[in-house]
Design goal:
Layout lengths: L4 H7 L25 E4 L5 E4 L2 H7 L15 E13 L4 E12 L5 E8 L6 E4 L21 E2 H14 L2 E4 L2 H5 L11 E4 L4 H7 L9 H9 L10 H14 L1 H8 L16
Helix pairs in contact: 6-7
Function: Exoribonuclease involved in ribosome biosynthesis. Involved in the processing of ITS1, the internal transcribed spacer localized between the 18S and 5.8S rRNAs.
Protein name: Exonuclease domain-containing protein
Keywords: Exonuclease, Hydrolase, Nuclease, rRNA processing
């Protein structure tokens, strides 16, 4: 099925039908939306939807267009993943399912689900829905607001160029699902690698504490209990960083130009 981005752009030019609010209560009455729009897919089938506002109401993402005015010098991110089975390699690989970026104060800069163009020999798979790992089939449909991965990577790259430091928890896991170069101009910090927390809360043999464990003991917050949310995880990561910012900077400050090859990949 063809991606209806052209319809979304056209929707902004049509007469408004009503005043609406977004998922956080902010007015989006300036978005001009037709009552109905159609497009024809590659297979000749005609599709109908109610315009950009219906699509925005369908997506569970909270900020599908980046808010560059909210970027601070230190930002935090978290990814939820989808999987793809590569037949030539006979194994699964991780890809971006949802990416969330927040600023120093936890405000959402960018939050979006990503979809990939179909490729021969690659089959998308997701964990069972009952595991509540945060990405479902309906999230990856473009008609539900998912954006093409090339667009998502461009937005993430531009956000990274506006900040100085990006914080993550097991951030190597997040960075490796993006194309090379997206994070090349920004320094990184990893809350999972903070040595005092590894000693106290990490389990042998790797001593890589999970984000939910640190959030419970250090922030008194319970996360990932019902469903994984990359927004919630990114905010928790930023709070952890701020809790011991000076010590983390002292230990990880020299790390520049992306993730060092020596960074250990652990469970998030």
């Amino acid at each position: 099925m063809s991606h209806p981005l052209s319809i979304l752009r056209a929707a902004r030019m049509a007469p408004p039908e009503a005043t609406h609010t977004d998922m956080e209560g902010g007015s989006i009455s300036d978005i001009r939306v037709p009552r109905e729009a159609t497009w024809t897919g590659d297979e000749g089938k005609e599709y109908v939807h109610l315009g950009v506002l219906e699509i925005l109401s369908r997506t569970r993402a909270l900020q599908v267009e980046p808010r560059f005015e909210l970027v601070t010098s230190i930002i935090a991110l978290d990814c939820e993943i989808q999987k793809v089975y590569v037949e030539a390699l006979r194994k699964h690989q991780h890809r971006v399912g949802r990416i969330s970026i927040v600023n120093y104060f936890g405000q959402i800069i960018y939050d979006v689900f990503a979809y990939y163009d179909e490729e021969p020999g690659k089959i998308i798979s997701l964990p069972p829905a009952e595991l509540n790992l945060g990405v479902y089939w309906r999230d990856l449909w473009p008609e539900n607001g998912a954006r093409p991965m090339w667009e998502v990577e461009n937005n993430v790259r531009n956000i990274m160029r506006c900040a100085k430091i990006v914080v993550g928890h097991a951030i190597a896991n997040d960075i490796k699902v993006f194309s090379e170069g997206v994070f090349e101009r920004i320094a990184v910090r990893d809350t999972q690698l903070h040595e005092p927390w590894r000693k106290e809360y990490g389990k042998a043999p790797q001593h890589m504490p999970k984000l939910a464990v640190l959030a419970c003991y250090l922030l008194r917050k319970h996360i990932q209990s019902d469903e994984h949310s990359s927004v919630e995880d990114a905010r928790a990561t930023m709070l952890l960083f701020r809790k011991d910012e000076a010590a983390i900077e002292a230990a990880q400050g020299p790390r520049r130009n992306g993730v060092s090859m020596k960074v250990e990949v652990g469970p998030s």
